[in-house]
Amino acid sequence: MRPILTLRHYSHDLIAHSHDHAQLVFGLSGALDFEVEGHGSQVVQQSFVVVPAGAHHGCGSPHGSRCLVLDVPSDDWVEQCLGDHAEASRRLLDDTARLPLDAGQSQLVSWLAGSPVDDPVIAQQGAVLLLASLNNARQATLGGRRLPYAALNAHIDQNAAYPLQVADLARIADLSSARLHARFVAECGQTPMDYIRSRRLHKAVALLRDSQLPIGEIAHRVGYSSQSAFAAAVLREFGVSPGTLRRQR
Hints:
47% of the residues lie in helices and 19% in strands. It has helices at residues 75-82, 86-94, 103-113, 120-133, 149-158, 166-173, 177-188, 192-210, 215-221, 227-238, 242-247; strands spanning 5-10, 15-17, 23-30, 32-36, 39-43, 47-51, 57-60, 65-71, 97-100. The chain has a 5-stranded antiparallel beta sheet, with helices on both faces. It is globular, with a radius of gyration of 19 Å.
């Protein structure tokens, strides 16, 4: 029987397929580029994507991404396990969407990610609780005019060693700082400063794995004034130290 909950690591290798069951993909760290039936989005912390049964989808993460994946066993399982929540859950699972998570939902996803999800009881009960909690999720439509991520990413990468402000990105996106903040939260589930921090740290991971630069120099190149602050940020983001990431090259 297929596991209901799994922790998965995604890389630059592209995955493209479809399956006969619905799936939810929750971002834990990094950024996962995701496309469902031609509609593109990005899965990061505090957001998830709904993949309806039979929908063709593809995903990949140039800098690496870690996600919690919920594979819904069947419609019968939803009916039997969700009870009064079943109809709302079916509506959620029937439509392609990228959805933000509120604070409570994010805490539940993080708790499940840190639990032994290979235990069938924890996986089943955790999936039921998670689905029930999502019934009032506010939908953010996939597609449409999105933020100019290529230009924003290029600016962050080119200036990673220097202080960056939300106003810098707002000028590139031709938005006010307040509007940019709202768009980032809606589209990515994170604030612009969180996005900058994550982008810098993923740039650091690439340098750790692909270069011989000292760790202190890498820290400086991605905007950290001290190696200890950089190490603490890497540990929070990826759960391992910079030295461990270097050895995993």
